[in-house]
Amino acid sequence: MEKTITRRDFMRGTMALALGIVAGFPDQTAQKQKTVRVVLIRNERVWIDETKLNPEIVQQMLDEGVMKLTGEPDPVDAFRRFVKPGDIVGIKTNVWQMLPTPPELERAIQRRVLDAGVSKNNVAIEDRGLLSNELFMKATALINVRPMRTHYWAGVGGCLKNLITFTATPSAYHEDNCADIGAFWKLPVIAGKVRLNILSMLNPLFHGRGPHHFDQRYVWNYNGILVGTDPVAVDAVGLSIIKAKRLQFFGAERALQTPPKHITMADVRHGLGTSDLTKIDLIKLGWTKDILV
Amino acid sequence: MGWQEYVCGIVLSMATLLFAGCAGEKVQHVDTLLKSLPTQVLDWKATESDATYTRKTLFHYIDGGAELYLTYKFQKAYVRRYAKAGDPKSEITLDIYDMGTPDEAFGIFSAEREDESVGIGQDSEYGGGLLRFWKGQYFVAIVVRGEAEAAKPAMMEMARAAEAAIPITGNKPALLKRLPKVSLVEREVRYFHSVNVLNNHYFIANENILNLGSDTQCILAKYNRDDASIFLLLVQYPAENKAQEAFARFMRTYMPEASTTGYAQMENKKWAMAKIDKNVTAFVFESPSKEKAEQLLSEITSGDR
After folding, report:
1. For FRET with B172, which of A185, A290, B35, B166 sits at 20 to 30 Å CA-CA?
2. Is residue B107 classed as helix, strand or coil in its secondary structure?
3. Residue B72 at interface with chain A, using a CB cutoff of 8 Å
4. CB distance from A10 to chain B under 8 Å?
5. What does residue A40 show for φ and ψ, rounded to 5 degrees?
6. Residues 193-232 of A with CB under 8 A from B
């Protein structure tokens, strides 16, 4: 039985020990060996103006990220580590109207998947309609891409949560603030197929309000992309940046509307990856101003 | 629809609502409400069919955010979208939420309030391209995607039209009358039922140690006294035995050293204090001294005034 964690545990600094491992609150006793790699790539000039991205720079950022992630000197070779010419590839995007996956990023991914030799007829980009998308249903490889944002019920929405549209009953996973989002990653339609996770930190939302959980004041141009093969690690790094931004903006620690426990649970309960920041080998490329991590 | 038709629509809608009120019927599920709103406001035109959502379908509209509304007595949502000619990236969405009772409409408004009032409805706020207000049993949210400042005049006009379409006001929750008034930060008074809303504003525990649920009424209020921010939490349970059970669980879990005194100094040197009065429990957090916590608890009224 897990111990009840109270505000006083935070005051005592014993919360990490109580939970074992907590995303964003590294367990000081954890071994320091880095076991998983995540790449953060930032570019100061990726935004042409407040709303328009430079597609060439987005492509360049993605390329640099996957090359560093794989150690390959060429972006197409790097993508060939994730998809093969015979694969049927679903690019799982996010169409949330307030902050969708940038089309420039979708196109950059699609281009490299095609460059890697996958047939044009075997690549699809989809979000809410994927259960009725025949190609997605027979996909052999998935690439998971979405923007990072705070989320009322899950704390944050990142790569882990992005695949929830693979279920016909997403609300079935809303129990306990989406703690068991990791469970649907074991569905046959997903398990073992996600080759790459890309979390857009180009303009994340770090605080939301209202029915649509959106407030323009809390969207900021961070100009970054996180890439990794471990969705838990990618989300854990994204969460740490969101928390740092909230601290910077609000001037004091301000709890997310819901503790994003699903990230930790995806690690400790579902074994999907690593949420402990001390075990993540974060490689930072490019622009460093206000990097927050 | 021209402005004359719009005005007629409003008048008809008001008459319908007033008649329903006079007849003693509960004013809710008024599907004509949205129809009475203008289809064009300044440069913005309604884009598609209006939509309605119920407790069962709200999730399809506000994925992830619906749970907050379902913790209140949300009944139905009415949605209209407006687009601006020549600007496909911009959109204003007008949502009207029938919350079932004025208590609940106030509650959902209070749960996320941050900004200054803009004088619409029984209380309102605008900030960051989001306009929110409540009136009667309705909560209204208007949000823009795109340039917020350019859209603000249209959003204000839409809000006024929605306000006019809701002619009947309502009372705030009676439990609010118990709150001490001195140094109360009015914008930071939250009314709710769910432990999630509590933890959002003041994290207590990862488990529901106060046994909060749809049958509990909760108020979290902030007081600024002597350069300190002190929180007062009131929870009204449906019965005394429920309050006693929850109080005992809280004391056992959160501050066992206070089982006989009701107060304890926390690890951050601030004081917490708790008391129970029939079916209402009261808790003070972050008090700079035991005396100030006692003082705040002593100012809680019986609620009869």
Report:
1. B35
2. helix
3. no
4. yes
5. -110, 120
6. 209-218
Tell me what ipTM this predicted complex has: 0.81
Distance from C-alpha of A143 to C-alpha of A82, rounded to nearest angstrom:
9
Chain-centroid distance, C-alpha A81: 20
Assess contact for A216 and B129: CB atoms under 8 A: yes
> Could you tell me which residue, B204 or B200, shows the higher pLDDT?
B204
Q: Are B79 and B95 in contact, with CB atoms under 8 Å apart?
A: yes
CA of A255 vs chain B CAs: smallest distance (Å) = 7
* Predicted TM-score (pTM) of this structure: 0.83
- Provide the number of CB pairs (under 8 Å) joining chain A to chain B: 103
Kindly state the helix (H) or strand (E) to which residue B138 belongs, with its residue range. Answer: strand B138-145
* Nearest to A214, CA basis, from B92, B156, B97: B92
| Rg, Å, chain B Cα set | 22
Residue A10 lies in a domain: no
| pLDDT at position B31 | 66
Three-class secondary structure of residue A253 per DSSP: coil
Query: Where in the sequence is the domain holding A197, given as residue range(s)?
Result: 33-286
Distance CA B70, CA A171 (A): 12
Domain range summary for chain B, segments of one domain joined by +: 3-165, 174-298
Q: What is the DSSP letter of B160?
A: H
| A93 closest CA partner among A113, A116, A75, A78 | A113
Task: Using alpha carbons, select from A139, A147, A100, A106 the residue that is nearest to residue A121.
Answer: A139
Place of tokens 């949205």: B34
Q: Quick check: is A225 in a domain?
A: yes
Task: Provide, as residue numbers in chain B, all residues whose Cβ is less than 8 Å from the Cβ of A212.
Answer: 62, 65, 93, 141, 143
B163 contacts B206 by C-beta, under 8 angstroms: no
For chain B, percent of residues with pLDDT exceeding 90: 73
What does R_g of chain A's alpha carbons equal in angstroms? 18
| Amino acid occupying residue A155 | G
The distance of A261 to chain B (nearest Cα, Å) reads 10
Domain B3-165: assigned CATH number:
3.40.1000
Q: Band of the pLDDT at A153, cuts 50, 70, 90?
A: confident
Task: Assess if residue A72 is contained within a domain.
Answer: yes
Residue A266: inside a domain, yes or no? yes
Across the interface, of A7, A98, A257, the residue whose CB is closest to B204 is A7
Scanning chain A, the segments in alpha helix (DSSP H) are 7-12, 15-19, 55-70, 75-80, 103-115, 134-137, 159-162, 175-178, 231-250, 261-268
Q: Which of B214, B279, B216, B209 is nearest to B244 (CA)?
A: B279
At residue B71, φ and ψ (nearest 5 deg) are -75, -15
Q: Report, as an integer, the average pLDDT of A217-232.
A: 97
Q: Tally the domains of chain A.
A: 1
| Three-class SS state of A203 | strand
Say if residue A73's pLDDT is above 80. Answer: yes
